[in-house]
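Collaborator request log, item 7. Partner lab (contact: R.S.) asked for a structural prediction of cyclic pyranopterin monophosphate synthase to inform their binding assays.
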Amino acid sequence: MSLSHINDSNQPGMVDVSAKNITPRAATAEALVHVNEAVAAQFDGTDLVSKKGPVFQTAILAGIMGAKQTSNLIPLCHPLPLDSVKIDITFTDHTATIRCTARTTGKTGVEMEALTGASIAALTLHDMCKALDPAITITQVRLVEKTGGKSDFGGKAETLKS
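Returned to partner:
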């Protein structure tokens, strides 16, 4: 097995997906954001409230925008028409769990879009709360599951609430 974005001449390039079938594709990624007590105290039961506004709602919008820009940020990603990007944020014990599910119908998967959405949402949460906690950490940015295409990973991508 070889790296998909390296050709026989050991040069980088986009994967040729022209011969692939168009199929429904989905991927879910996750990022954890750990905050201190000062930030956790701002949680009102549904969102973190900051001087910059509602943190989770802003992070959700930023994550969706980020997922839509993936091919502009990651050099070898194909530009994809995304059918859906949904981000869900839960908060327990000083940790925000961000899950991003991206969907498309196409010739290549949406793993990078889901990972980018989760990452940008996590970075936005960090930006909005750093005044209360400059030591916020973002951990475990990972692909949770993907479906469609040649191989699935982690089971069926779940549907997140709107």
